[in-house]
Amino acid sequence: GLGDVYKRQLPSCSRSREMSFLQSLARRYATSHPVAAATRIQDLDPDEAATFLAGLEPEAAAAVFSELWPRTAAGILDRVAPDRAAKVLEMLNLSRAAALLRQLPADARDRILNTLPPPIASRMRKSLSLAEGTAGSEADTGVIPYDAEMTVGEALARGSDPRLPYLYVIDREYRLVGVVHRRELEISNTGAVLRSIMKAPVQRIPATAPLATVHQHKSWSDFDALPVVDGRIAFLGVIRHKALRTAPRTSRAAAGPTPALTALLDLGEIYWSSLFSAIEIFAEGDAKKGTEDLQ
Prior knowledge:
Elements: H1 2-9, H2 15-32, H3 34-41, H4 46-54, H5 58-65, H6 70-77, H7 82-91, H8 94-102, H9 106-115, H10 118-128, H11 135-138, E1 146-147, H12 152-158, E2 166-170, E3 176-181, H13 182-187, H14 194-197, E4 205-206, H15 211-215, E5 225-229, E6 235-240, H16 241-245, H17 268-279, H18 283-294
Parallel strand pairs: 1-2, 4-5
Antiparallel strand pairs: 2-3, 5-6
Helix pairs in contact: 1-18, 2-3, 2-17, 3-5, 4-6, 5-7, 6-8, 7-9, 8-10
């Protein structure tokens, strides 16, 4: 396995070449397995995570950013150079990119928008301009949707917001296409794709709907939360009935990172022990490549 290759080659390489090898493995791991990589990156210090993600190709970094909780992703994005952050956002669909930008301070958001190509920046600004007092302005963008082609096993491994009984399912254009009840997920074959078990159509709320109208939505008798979509039916987040029935919400502080795990960019053996079990999936093909890198 790849671990045996690493252990055989370690005595003959310098610390810097050892780190180069490990970082190369981590980059390839993140590129091939963005969902699993995002799970690990959630637990890193934001500065460490930003350093690591800055070393990925923009397309690979965007795949990882798509799987991170928006507030976590925004905290990392805020630590990346604006031009690099802009390249990552270009790789995301508009709704997801706007959801991340909404989490940033205004000055950081403007720096990134000013770096984007003008046509893309214009579309981003339009998406960010939803008026206060609308469903879009009150949507909880911290809810991550699930790709319709994701398997049940992958969805279970990722986890979900325990406060929500449903998983919201999107297509590759980020459009809301269905929902899966948590109970249905737990009893389904782990190899089945979400598209095959989801329920459609979905009750949804337009982002531009005034809150006064949202209060009267007929579906509150059946649901505690409803998805919010833009004009393209792209998923923006959810709005909870409880939030509408209580006093205006105070801004929730962005959750800080959990104690940093010594992984990904940490030194030698500590790095390896934290990532070893996941990297084993590369098996023989990557083992050969790893050996060649060290020669």
